[in-house]
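Dataset card, provenance and construction

Sequences and ligand SMILES were collected as paired inputs. For each pair, a complete structure of the chain with the small molecule in place was predicted and serialized as structure tokens. The example below shows a pair involving adenosine-5'-triphosphate. Curators did not alter the output after generation; any descriptive sentences attached to a record were derived from the structure itself.
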Amino acid sequence: MNEFIRIKGVSKLFGDFVAVDNVSLDIAKGELFSILGGSGCGKTTLLRMLAGFEVPSSGAIEIDGVDVTHQAPYDRPVNMMFQSYALFPHMNVATNIGYGLRKEGTAKPEIARRVDEMLELVQLSDFKNRKPDQLSGGQRQRVALARALIKRPKVLLLDEPLAALDKKLRERTQFELMNIQHELGITFVVVTHDQEEAMTLSSRIVVMNKGKFEQIGTPKEIYEFPVNRFVADFIGTINTFEGIVTVVNDDSIEVYSDQIGETLSALGRQLVEVGQQVQIAVRPEKIFLSRDKPDNDEDICIEGVVDDLGYLGNRSLYRVRVKSGRIVQVSSQNRRRSVTRFLEWDDKVWISWRPRSAVVLLD
Ligand SMILES: Nc1ncnc2c1ncn2[C@@H]1O[C@H](COP(=O)(O)OP(=O)(O)OP(=O)(O)O)[C@@H](O)[C@H]1O
Ligand SMILES: [Mg+2]
């Protein structure tokens, strides 16, 4: 990887409170990298250190080969769009966007040219003379983005850029953001606490918890191979079954789970020993439903009863109670010929999944 931003063992303390706890991370040029985590886990603090508004208590930050740890914000090739961005209410759209260049003393014709370029990029050319209070939330968002982009930073830091938007507009703006990023090739670091947003937008994600990094990876890696219970629970829905390892093979393990009254096999990626307590985790969409026992020795098959079901248009969610009493969540695409179309409350069903659909979690 060609490391463009390097975060090397960075911590930030406020008094004796550790807001960011010895984290390291490399981000490549042109990535759209997301920092994902719950409220108060240190996302904004980390971003502010990248921007230069906070100085790390220890560790170092490099951008484009330069140690910027102690550099002032305006010396860095970075711009930040704040969590609660504010447009100047008395200025129109074009004047808001050109603000940074005017402050730098750029020549007027050059400012006009670049403002027009930005207006086109964020598709607001027809709105250039409006004041912020004459715009929708999504349009204001795009003005803020244009204002941050006009100085052509090498890195744009965005703190919850879409949080103020409703769901529909947020989804649309996500794609616009991706297009703009792709067009300009600028490295984006985006903070969000919305896991779906991070999954849609990002080339890679870091999941943060209490100032530490739990996992860094592509959306797919993080979703398919969460390294621990926190990440598995944070990203999407997952069933976890606690159990004891009974057999360790070359590439798989067997785990007896009394929560479910069954031996579950799983592809073991981690080193585990017989007798060790682990969790087997399976996503709801990896589980199949059938009325008859599946005729397949390798799959995990468990009998149960439909305890609850919910129709969500393109898919349905089922809560299946297995004989141990444990509820297992299953999500199924609604296809026309699918057996699940006719399932009702209290129906007997078999749930089944492939051993390779299960992940072993150690903590
Ligand atoms: N200047 C400060 N002085 C003292 N504590 C601070 C300061 N700034 C942040 N903190 C604390 O550090 C922790 C991390 O704050 P931060 O703003 O980075 O969280 P966040 O992940 O961005 O949360 P949110 O999703 O709510 O925006 C919080 O517990 C916060 O109270
Ligand atoms: Mg924040």
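Derived descriptions for this record:
The chain has eight helices and 20 strands.
The CA atoms of residues 5 and 175 lie 24 Å apart.
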